[in-house]
From TrEMBL:
Annotated GO MF terms: metal ion binding; rhamnulose-1-phosphate aldolase activity
Name of the featured protein: Rhamnulose-1-phosphate aldolase
SUPFAM superfamilies registered for this protein in UniProt: AraD/HMP-PK domain-like
Domain of life of the source: Bacteria
Organism, as annotated: Candidatus Coprovicinus avistercoris
Organism phylogeny: Bacteria, Bacillati, Actinomycetota, Coriobacteriia, Coriobacteriales
CC per GO annotation: cytosol
Broad enzyme group: lyase
Entry keyword set: Lyase, Metal-binding
Encoding gene per record: rhaD
GO terms under biological process: pentose catabolic process
Residue span, Class II aldolase/adducin N-terminal domain: 11-235
EC number: 4.1.2.19
The keyword Ribonucleoprotein belongs to this UniProt entry's keyword annotation: no
InterPro entries: Aldolase_class_II_sugar_metab (IPR050197), Aldolase_II/adducin_N (IPR001303), Aldolase_II/adducin_N_sf (IPR036409)
Length: 271
């Protein structure tokens, strides 16, 4: 049986968590990450279902039988590198029953309060792409600021980002989901996130933060970096009093044609 802390994904989470804290995206305990272990990583662990501490939770069907690496509730991302036993853990989701098992780590602790929203998001993304295994949430500064001063309609929010740089529509042609302000850690916000994530990889929680999904930790992080960058440029334009549109619809159509993209229906005139 392998030491769970030696799995590559555990070390990646520790390093990326510190990087996100260093970017000021995860102040105090403001962030959480989940990662679905691969079959190879699960075999390496050698865990016996039923052996861990059981915790009640309404479980979506799409994640049953999965092992989830998760950050702890109240965890400070700058400390994950030094205290994985308490601030990280691996949970097993059983094939039946509304509970999960804490298989490793999370000593005297429990998963993030956003665990229901994470599991709902994983279930939604797996239904689209069985290789998507990462969900991360944090308070990316520029995106958070944009929810205060930018469009409140998700179509206009997406278009504002697409018009900043060509890479935006290339990286998220399906658009950005925007969830109106809700109390975090509730089933309501988990359900709302689930609906958005059925056909998008990135969801913004108004006045709160973001959810980013991907095939790997660096894939989800790269998407997050890009969205926060273009949101930052949007804010700089606002500070300068610039109301220019940026890349127009023809430019967006040209990008889609060149890169073979199918943008979200109804967002770009003529597409």
């Amino acid at each position: 049986m392998a030491d769970w802390k030696q799995i590559g994904a555990v070390k990646e989470v520790q390093e990326l968590a510190y990087l996100m804290w260093d970017k000021n995206w995860d102040e105090a305990n403001g962030g959480n990450i989940t990662y679905l272990l691969t079959d190879e990583e699960v075999a390496e662990l050698g865990y016996t279902p039923g052996a861990g501490r059981k915790v009640d939770l309404k479980v979506p069907d799409g994640v049953r039988g999965k092992y989830v690496l998760v950050t702890a509730t109240g965890s400070y991302f700058r400390e994950l590198r030094d205290d994985p036993d308490h601030l990280l853990g691996i949970c097993y989701i059983p094939e039946e029953g509304d509970y999960y098992e804490i298989a490793y780590g999370l000593e005297d602790n429990r998963p993030t309060s956003e665990f229901p929203a994470h599991l709902a998001t994983h279930a939604a993304r797996l239904a689209v792409d069985p290789e998507q295994r990462v969900v991360m949430h944090n308070h990316a500064t520029n995106v958070l600021a944009m929810t205060h001063v930018g469009p409140t309609d998700e179509k206009e929010f997406t278009l504002a980002l697409w018009r900043i740089i060509p890479e935006a529509i290339v990286l998220f042609p399906e658009g950005i989901g925007l969830v109106p302000f809700m109390v975090c850690g509730t089933q309501d916000i988990a359900d709302a996130t689930l609906e958005k994530m059925k056909d998008r990889r990135f969801v913004v929680w108004q006045y709160h933060g973001v959810f980013s999904a991907g095939h790997s930790l660096h894939d989800a992080f790269g998407l997050l970096e890009t969205v926060d960058k273009v949101a930052g440029v949007y804010l700089e334009m606002k500070r300068c009093g610039c109301d220019k549109q940026g890349i127009d619809d023809q430019g967006l159509r040209d990008l889609c044609e060149h890169f073979g993209l199918t943008p979200r229906a109804g967002y770009i005139e003529g597409m």
